[in-house]
Request: fold
Amino acid sequence: MNKLVRITPRDMVAVALCELPAGQAVSYGAGEVTPLTDIPMGHKVALRDIRQGEPIVKYGFPIGAATCDIPAGGHVHTHDLRTLLSGELEYSWNPTHPRLEPAEPVRFDGYRREDGRVGIRNELWIIPTVGCVNDVASALERKMQRLVGEGIDGVYAFRHPYGCSQMGGDQENTRQVLADLCGHPNAGGVLLLGLGCENSGVDLILQHMDQIPHPRLRTLICQQVEDEIEAGTAILEELAEQMRGDARVACDTRDLVVGLKCGGSDGLSGITANPTIGGFSDRLTARGGATILTEVPEMFGAETILMNRCEDEATFEKTVRLINDFKHYFEASGQPVYENPSPGNKAGGISTLEDKALGCTQKSGDAPVADVLAYGERVKQKGLNLLSAPGNDLVAATALAAAGAQLVLFSTGRGTPFASPVPTVKISSNSALAGRKKGWIDFNAGALLDGKTLPQLSDELFDLVIAIAGGQQTLSEKSGFKDLAIFKNGVTL
Reply:
């Protein structure tokens, strides 16, 4: 097994693939370096002397600048490396004109809905309009578990704290995301559960539905009935009876939309898990499907790579606005744009936001950028899409589901049990995590360091996604996990 990897020939640092003890020479390609201190797995070691103030290159791009002289073999991390990020920038389009060779679509069996979209699950969803009825939704979820089976894959309530005491954009975000979920193709039936006096009531949610209304969307306003549990039970039983006639039919990759997300990353995420997902993304888009990359703050420092892959200048301009609008959001709140990575990221070897972003964007593969979506907007274009959402795992994964993703690929170097409203595939960056958290990790990209090739892993991940689209459960599904979080950035009344 290799112990050290230099990602590109331009790099001034290499990444430890296991813990490297001080004083023992380690080879990388045609070179060799002797660590001056112990280097943890996923962390960086200097391959040559680096002067104070000199930009440090990893992934072929600067990830920051040295805050002091760093000798060859030195540990390069937060103690001697600072970000070079600042505020809004002006960009120019320098298109690289990437193209992927089309490939034949691959079949799976899914649920073809009346609007033409395809679901990969046939679930019964209970969606509260306001946090005040969360407990009612949860009580109905528990009571209705007896409906699962015979064509019904699950009954889920999506709790959230919003729907009232919100203003402006926050209120619109809540209404739009809930409306998006009401029309999601993974739901064979939906109960939109309201209170009756909230700002974002049932009627307003329905007005935000930009698609054909779900033929099995039912509403219940708790203040208008004597017993909301009894009334909700009757509605859910009626929906379940209709869903039992649903059957999987032949569909293919042209019907798939897959969200791409990473969280709890480490220094290996950009070497193993994220490039594996990028290879998957290229395979799916070449076969007529769509993928969605989000986490805009984790594009900072790598945004020009995406901009130059835009299909046309209009898409480039939308990408510029995507980046600078999110930077303005940080600055308007008095926060630096580089307040990232997280403590877990740093412990795993990620030192700056540029370091994280260059690894994060590996999930996008090599495909051209086909479109850029606002928060709450649904996918319209096949190919690679960019979506406006923050880096927070639950908020970003929910945004992917609201945009139309039927499942989410989630890479991690640290591990997490959470799941989004749609099947969430956990992909580990290292084999140690996969071995330790067998109840969390669906796919081990750390196998790249054990002898498998990147094309092999991307092929295997593609096959797993096709199996999951056809009904195979993820580990989080087997645990019954579903989470919902809506983006909030304003005043609470």
